[in-house]
Amino acid sequence: HWVNMDKGCQKAAEELGCDYQWMAPDVKDDAKQIECVNNAVAGGATAILIAANGPDAITAALEEADEAGVKIVQVDSFANYPCVQKLGTDNKTAGKMAGEEVLKALQAKGVTEGKIGIVSVNKATTSTVDREEGFREAFEGTAYEILETQYADGDAAKSKDAAANFITQGCVALFGANEGSCVGVGNAVAEDGNQIVAAGMDKSDAVIQLIKGDSLICTMAQNPDVMGYEGMYAAITAINGGNVAPEYIDTGVSILTKDSLAE
Question: pLDDT means per 10 residues in the chain (263 residues)?
């Protein structure tokens, strides 16, 4: 996901003839992300593309950047702070799409009720919270019981443990709300002999292999390269005093299944 976003940034930067620095920390850590923003401002950045860990933790740092004249573009997951443009997935819709795929697969197996587990990142990251909400919405009015979400920081190993716990509780289906969660869910399902219907979010080599191996029925693939590419153009337009519109761009999602991957 992040590699592809970086590729989108790089492509736009080459076309625009501008310099950029990829500064994302390797873990979801508010303090480290705030430090990255502060370092960018101190280093003379004229614009920042930010994928906020959560809606509020980073707002003070963004306000300081804004006051310093830095243009702010938000991508992927958003903070509660005004910016030039927001680019990302309609995460609630993506989650609901995943839920609908799981529902269809369960019904095809003749499983019309049972417990369902969700493995996600944390309670603060807006994008994954929205995916959980959309996933749950797909099962409203059905006989299925969606259990309390388990949070594993997007870490594949922790997510696998959380998914295995759901399986021991007799769950008939699972959902992983981001790439790490999805890989963990798929690995747990694989160890259980692919008896559970499972779906996830995000595309990676590991996720694709789990789909091909029948441990995941599908994943909702985002377009992070578009976020990075269009986000860079928005930033440069703003730096040059141009008008950036619209305020929000939905960069879309695709359902990747074993059949679609074979095409």
Answer: 91 96 86 96 97 92 97 95 96 97 98 98 91 98 98 97 98 97 98 98 95 98 96 97 96 96 87
pLDDT of amino acid 125: 85
3-state secondary structure of 150: strand
The one-letter amino acid at 23: M
Answer yes or no: are the C-beta atoms of 20 and 7 closer than 8 Å: no
Residue among 153, 145, 200 at smallest CA distance from 169: 145
Q: For residue 109, how many other CB atoms are within 10 A of its CB?
A: 12
φ/ψ of residue 189, rounded to 5: -65, -40
CA angle 49/52/54 to nearest 5° reads 165
How far apart, in whole angstroms, are the C-alpha atoms of residue 179 and residue 195?
21
Grouping H, G, I as helix, E, B as strand and the rest as coil, residue 258 is: helix
pLDDT of residue 132: 98
The CA R_g of the chain, rounded to the nearest whole Å, is 19
Reduced to 3 states (helix: H, G, I; strand: E, B; else coil), residue 236 is helix
**In a 3-state reduction of DSSP, which class is residue 119?**
strand
Give yes or no for a contact between 185 and 175, defined as CB atoms under 8 angstroms apart: yes
**Interatomic CA distance for residues 99 and 163, integer angstroms:** 17
